[in-house]
Design goal:
Layout: H1 3-9, H2 15-23, E1 27-29, E2 32-33, E3 48-50, E4 53-54, E5 62-67, H3 89-92, E6 97-98, E7 107-113, H4 116-123, E8 131-137, H5 143-151, E9 165-168, E10 174-179, H6 186-193, E11 198-206, E12 209-210, E13 220-222, H7 225-234
Parallel strand pairs: 7-11
Antiparallel strand pairs: 1-2, 1-3, 3-4, 5-7, 5-13, 6-7, 8-10, 8-11, 9-10, 11-12
The chain binds uracil.
Uracil binds near residues 103, 106, 185 and 201.
């Protein structure tokens, strides 16, 4: 792989930035100052530094993002801004895509990755990876409504949802729901089946991941090694 490609797939520098850094002698390969941006680099074997810092090669990247209102969970959209637009261009070039969908007005935890196989496994209905959502509805929920959630709700198209956990706050109009599947607009449709209406929805967990309290809307960070491992374990 060319040095400039290596530095772009590791989200360190654009080709232009690499050219500038190479000219100023701040990129090294195996301890020797790089002279050309197209010099070959073996990502598995060579040691590259950029501005004095070692560059760690990772084939797969995992980004946890706090989705704001109005963004769509897609890589491209003709109409609305996409969650990818919240990342710097270097990350977009890594081929990241959203692992699962949140509706345009749903907020919270969104995982982006370029690991297609892991994403597929995390979303597979067979694996039952749990996702918890904080919600608010228009009308108070009754014990019978909660029992319906726990037993499974019949949606308007006849689909019978898998049992979902529900916890209500004292106001009975807010709480959390935990799903082990991910049908289109699922929570909205479950509430509608009970003649209620979602007014607020935020995903707070996805498998082993929790939305960090200090991650503001629209902000993102890469997963730690421990979080990555926990995700791989959840997808086994
Ligand atoms: N259920 C919904 O209705 N919307 C989401 O975005 C996620 C779960």
């Amino acid at each position: 792989m060319r040095l400039d490609k290596f530095l772009s797939v590791t989200a360190v520098a654009t080709r232009k930035e690499t050219a500038k850094a190479v000219r100023s002698g701040t990129v090294t390969v195996n301890g020797i100052v790089a002279k050309k941006t197209d010099m070959p680099v073996d990502p598995e074997k060579d040691t590259v530094t950029y501005g004095g810092k070692p560059v760690v090669y990772k084939q797969y990247r995992y980004v946890l993002l706090n989705k704001p209102d109005g963004y769509v969970s897609a890589t491209e959209d003709g109409k609305d801004p996409t969650v990818l637009e919240l990342l710097p261009p270097l990350y977009t070039d890594l081929g990241l895509f959203p692992c699962g969908r949140l509706d345009k007005h749903t907020l919270g935890l969104m995982l982006l990755t370029n690991n297609g196989e892991l994403s597929h496994r995390l979303l597979s209905p067979r694996r039952h990876v749990a996702k918890r959502y904080a919600f608010r509805v228009k009308f108070p929920l009754s014990d019978a409504d909660c029992a319906c959630f726990r037993d499974g709700v019949t949606l308007e198209d006849g689909y019978e949802t898998k049992p979902a956990e529900i916890e209500l706050n004292q106001d009975k109009k807010s709480g959390t729901v935990t799903l082990i599947e991910g049908k289109y607009h699922q929570i909205k449709r479950m509430m509608e089946a009970l003649h209620n209406q979602i007014t607020y929805l935020e995903r707070v967990t996805f498998g082993p991941l929790t939305l960090p309290a200090d991650l503001a809307r629209g902000e993102w960070r890469e997963l730690t090694a421990a979080q990555e491992q926990a995700l791989l374990d959840a997808a086994k």
